[in-house]
Design brief:
binds fe (ii) ion, globular, 6-stranded mixed beta sheet, alpha/beta, 258 residues
């Protein structure tokens, strides 16, 4: 089976790039399970219910979030009823869940998300290694997939090595920059440090670049605005899972610029 995982979909151009990129991939591949990171889909911060439903309409099986999970307040109105959203498991909240288990072709697929602790704003982020270990101990699933939402590449890499053989697919999100290190760790775990962003190409991680440049030069009060014009990038990984051998057999990165 083929599992497609799409990196942080950022605002309007992200939605455009997602539709177009997905259509292109589907011309060549049959996608059996589709995961996207949606933490930036609504104006760069969070996900409103309309955009969540829009993703489901595009065939998405699971949406992961991140540090922006609750920045669009609409999420509080629907996340507890939503069946296809995973927010970070290592934060304390009564809203949403940190992992979900789905069925595909008599297989159970569990998708987990955790936040990294290094350079991540916000207090009370619990140790992601220990939290995931506990989830693995207390769930039973044929396939485990984890979105590690981290800023520091070293933390994601260490996580990948720690859970090699225990989690089938480990992918990083949050930096919005695709890394060139996709591999299968020890023949068992499909891994990439960051899937990359789906959104504006000529921007600073989705935000209008002029705003970010001015902020770096001292105008700290300027508000972030998504870049809504220009070229787009679509960033994803495609993983083959061998249902007979019960393990991943291939990982490839996808980056489409239009
Ligand atoms: Fe993001
Ligand atoms: Fe993030």
């Amino acid at each position: 089976m083929k599992i497609l995982i799409v990196g942080d979909i950022y605002s309007k151009l992200g939605r455009k790039a997602f539709t177009s990129g997905l259509a292109k991939i589907k011309e060549k591949e049959t996608i059996n399970f589709l995961i996207v990171n949606g933490e930036n889909i609504s104006h760069g911060k969070g996900m409103n219910e309309n955009h969540y439903k829009w993703l489901l309409g595009q065939g998405v099986n699971v949406v992961t979030l991140g540090n922006h999970a609750f920045h669009n307040k609409d999420i509080f109105n629907y996340i507890n009823e939503a069946k296809n959203i995973v927010r970070p498991a290592n934060i304390e909240t009564e809203y949403g869940v940190g992992f979900v288990t789905k069925n595909y072709n008599n297989l159970t697929i569990t998708v987990i998300q955790v936040l990294g602790q290094i350079f991540m704003h916000g207090n009370n982020i619990k140790n992601p290694f220990l939290v995931v270990e506990e989830i693995l101990e207390n769930t039973k699933s044929d396939i485990y997939i984890c979105d590690f939402h981290g800023e520091a590449t070293s933390e994601v890499i260490a996580f990948g090595h720690y859970f090699t053989g225990k989690i089938d697919i480990i992918f990083g999100t949050h930096t919005h920059v695709q890394t060139n290190d996709a591999c299968i760790l020890n023949g068992k775990t499909a891994y990439i440090t960051d899937v990359g962003m789906t959104g504006a190409l000529e921007s600073v991680i989705g935000v209008k670049k002029d705003i970010i440049l001015k902020r770096f030069l001292g105008q700290n009060t300027l508000r972030f605005e998504p870049e809504n014009d220009g070229k787009t990038q679509f960033s994803a990984i495609l993983v083959d899972y061998d249902e007979q051998l019960k393990k991943v057999s291939k990982i490839e990165t996808i980056r489409i610029i239009e």
